[in-house]
Design brief:
It contains nine helices and four strands, in the order E-H-E-H-H-E-E-H-H-H-H-H-H. By secondary structure, the chain is mainly alpha-helical.
C-alpha cells in the first residue's frame, strides 16, 4: 500500500497559507507557547505533519501568527516528548516511529492501564463505571456505522476514563505520556487492520469485571488485551514499512 509515510526523506514543508488564528497570550486561557505546542502536536498526531518531514520554525510562526520565540519553546517541549528533532539549517524534523521503542512503550502502557483497571475494580465508583459503559456504547455505535474516526475517539475516551478511574494522579500522568507516543502509530494502521470488534468486546468484558469488583481478573484481562493490540500494531507497521 503506497504511502507518503514510507519515504525516507521529505522536502522542507511549505505550510498552506491562510489567515492564521492568533494565539492568546497571558490574558487568555493559554500562553502562546502552550497553544503553539498544542497545535503542532495535533498536526503530528493526525499526520498532517508526517514522519521524517521537515518544517521551518519561521513557517510555523507565520502559519500560527506568532513570533518565533513561542515556536522555539514549543519545539523544545515536543523534542522532550520524543516527537521531533531539531536539525541545523533544516528546522524541525518530525521523528519517525521506531518499532523497538513502540514495543517498549506498549509494555509500560499495558502495565499502567492494567493497574488502573485493578484499582478501578477496588474502588467501584458508579459514576466512573457509567462513563466507561458510555464509551463502550459509543465505540459499538461507531463500528456499526463503519466510522473509524468515531471509533478511535471513543476508544481514546475509554482508555482515558479507565486510567482516571484509578484515582491515582501519578499513574494518570505516566499513562498520558505513553498514550501520546502510541497514538500516531495507531492512526497509521487504522485502515490496515480488521474492524476492531474484538477490542469493543474486550472493553465491555473489562467493565463487567470492574463492576463485579474482580480486581485481579480486571488486571489480567486488560494486560492481555493491550499486549494483543501491541502485537497487531507493530506487525502491521513492520509489514507496511511504516517504522524504522
Amino acid at each position: 500500500m503506497a504511502s507518503d509515510w514510507r519515504r525516507s526523506a521529505l522536502p522542507i514543508r511549505v505550510l498552506r497559507r491562510g489567515r492564521p488564528e492568533r494565539l492568546k497570550g497571558v490574558d487568555g486561557t493559554m500562553t502562546a507557547t502552550e497553544r503553539a505546542y498544542s497545535e503542532i502536536k495535533r498536526r503530528i498526531m493526525d499526520m498532517t505533519l508526517a514522519p521524517n518531514e521537515h518544517v521551518l520554525e519561521a513557517e510555523l510562526a507565520q502559519d500560527l501568527g506568532v513570533s518565533r520565540t513561542p515556536i522555539r519553546e514549543a519545539v523544545l517541549m515536543l523534542r522532550s516528548d520524543g516527537l521531533v528533532d531539531i536539525v541545523p539549517r533544516r528546522g524541525v524534523r518530525i521523528r519517525p516511529v521506531s518499532a523497538d521503542q513502540l514495543e517498549g512503550i506498549y509494555d509500560v502502557l499495558a502495565l499502567l492501564e492494567a493497574r488502573a483497571a485493578e484499582l478501578a475494580a477496588t474502588r467501584q465508583s458508579s459514576a466512573r463505571i457509567a462513563a466507561l459503559d458510555s464509551a463502550v456504547a459509543s465505540m459499538s455505535s461507531a463500528l456499526r456505522e463503519r466510522d473509524l474516526d468515531g471509533w478511535e475517539g471513543a476508544d481514546d475516551d475509554f482508555h482515558r476514563l479507565l486510567v482516571e478511574a484509578s484515582e491515582n494522579d501519578y499513574l494518570v500522568a505516566a499513562a498520558r505520556t505513553s498514550v501520546d507516543r502510541v497514538r500516531r502509530a495507531r492512526r497509521m494502521t487504522m485502515r490496515l487492520r480488521p474492524l476492531p470488534t474484538e477490542s469493543v468486546r474486550d472493553h465491555a468484558e473489562l467493565v463487567a469485571l470492574i463492576r463485579a469488583g474482580r480486581a485481579a481478573d480486571a488486571f489480567a484481562s486488560h494486560l492481555a488485551h493491550r499486549r494483543r493490540a501491541a502485537e497487531l500494531l507493530v506487525t502491521l507497521l513492520r509489514e507496511n514499512r511504516l517504522v524504522v
